[in-house]
Design a protein that fits this description.
This protein has about 400 residues and is α/β, with parallel strands linked by helices. Helix content is about 45%, strand content about 15%. The protein has 16 helices and twelve strands. Strand 10, helix 13 and strand 11 form a beta-alpha-beta unit.
């Protein structure tokens, strides 16, 4: 519950930054980039992008390309078809799918997987203008992210981060044109900035809240304590506000996992972040039965669930809706939530309990549907009768007179 609350202190800081960007534009953006990233170039040159890509390790480059192919193939299955329906009166009703005009992908500096996961659906949807927003730390671009952007045919890259990036992309500056939608995971400040701008209708409202990572591991002794502990540590290394829970009916397994976490955390480079995250939102929870576990998962509605239990197939059966309030499920002994970050399924997922009503990012997030009504003479005569009655019942006289006037054409 604590993680779901809007932090008023964060909102205050974000509002101040957004208003500064709105007022001073590029000047404000440069100020914040110098302050937080020691960078003063908002728009990287093609030369610097190409240089970063050339310096990329060939093995890493190959891995990015393989991930790109897998993610592209999976998301291509999500393309929407136009719906055209004709009734027995000759009326024609259509649902026409159109790509958004512009979109920006917010991507952390070192995560090419995030660039792929967010840019590929946009690419497939046919978005005309796609902007990748990713910081340059100490003036240096990340070659892996640049290569991922190149594969996705991104033509516009902006070196910005944090709330100032969202403000610039939402309101626009002299050097940065505004966009209709900003997607991509970020810090609490980024998430707050997107929420503020969408509430003002400056950018489109995201279906989900893509905030700090969450994982719930439902385990029995078919999983090893090493596997479970590293699953929890993996999500906790993202940031200090991640949620990492283990749920089990096996008290001995819980004790083993606790010992392994204490052991493994010492060997990880991001141990300070992990420790702070686990201290705030980490827990190993003992439950008496499956019902208690399912109730808790439903209450949390987490981004990720790892099913490391023997009877996992019972819960991924399409007819079973016990785990429907989750963003993503890694099921069975060979599945890994950390591995799923690299495709083909989506890793931009709902957090902060928004998995109750939203799924992960998809091609449809980058499109809109336009409804078209094309009535026949016979259809107008038929439909206008009930429409006239209902509009009068609702006391919408203007509606009823409009219907009545149009119905004269059907005489």
């Amino acid at each position: 519950l604590k993680r779901r609350k809007v932090d008023t202190k964060v909102n205050k800081v974000v509002n101040r930054i957004i208003n500064d960007v709105k007022k001073r534009g590029d000047q404000a953006c440069i100020y914040y980039e110098r302050k937080f990233n020691n960078n003063s170039k908002l728009i990287p040159s093609k030369k610097s992008i190409d240089k970063a890509i050339r310096a990329l390790n060939p093995e890493v480059k190959k891995a990015i390309f393989e991930s790109y192919k897998r993610i592209y193939k999976w998301h291509s299955l999500q393309l929407r078809k136009n719906i055209i329906y004709k009734d027995n009166f000759g009326n024609k009703f259509s649902y026409i799918t159109k790509p958004l005009t512009s979109c920006a992908v917010y991507c952390p500096q070192n995560l090419p997987s995030t660039a792929l996961m967010n840019c590929i659906p946009s690419q497939l949807a046919g978005v005309k203008r796609l902007v990748l927003c990713t910081p340059a730390i100490n003036g240096q671009l990340n070659g892996a992210v640049m290569y991922a952007a190149k594969l996705c045919n991104v033509k516009e890259i902006v070196s910005l981060s944090g709330a100032s990036a969202i403000g610039a992309l939402g309101y626009g500056t002299k050097r940065i044109k505004p966009v209709d939608l900003i997607i991509g995971p970020g810090s609490t400040y980024v998430a707050a900035a997107k929420r503020i701008l969408s509430s003002e209708n400056i950018i489109a409202q995201e279906r989900m809240f893509a905030g700090e990572s969450e994982i719930v591991c439902w385990c029995d002794n078919s999983a090893t304590s090493d596997e479970i502990s590293y699953s929890l540590l993996a999500q906790s290394e993202h940031s200090q506000g991640c949620l990492a829970l283990m749920l089990s009916k096996d008290l001995n397994l819980i004790k083993e996992v606790k010992n392994k976490i204490e052991k493994h955390i010492k060997t990880l480079p991001r141990k300070k972040i992990i420790s702070q995250s686990l201290k705030r939102y980490g827990a190993l929870i003992y439950a008496k039965n499956d019902r208690e576990i399912l109730n808790l998962i439903q209450f949390i509605s987490p981004e990720h669930v790892e099913l490391q239990i023997r009877n996992y197939k019972k819960y991924i059966n399409p007819l079973n809706d016990k785990l429907k309030t989750t963003g993503s499920i890694a099921a069975g002994p060979y599945s890994s939530m950390a591995l799923s970050d690299y495709g083909p399924t989506q890793h931009s997922l709902p957090t902060n309990s928004t998995a109750r009503y939203a799924g992960g990012l998809s091609v449809s997030d980058f499109t809109k549907q336009i409804s078209i009504n094309e009535l026949s003479k016979k259809g107008l005569k038929k439909l206008s009768k009930s429409g006239y009655v209902l509009s009068n019942m609702e006391k919408l006289t203007g509606h009823s007179m409009s219907i009545k006037t149009k119905a004269l054409r059907s005489k």
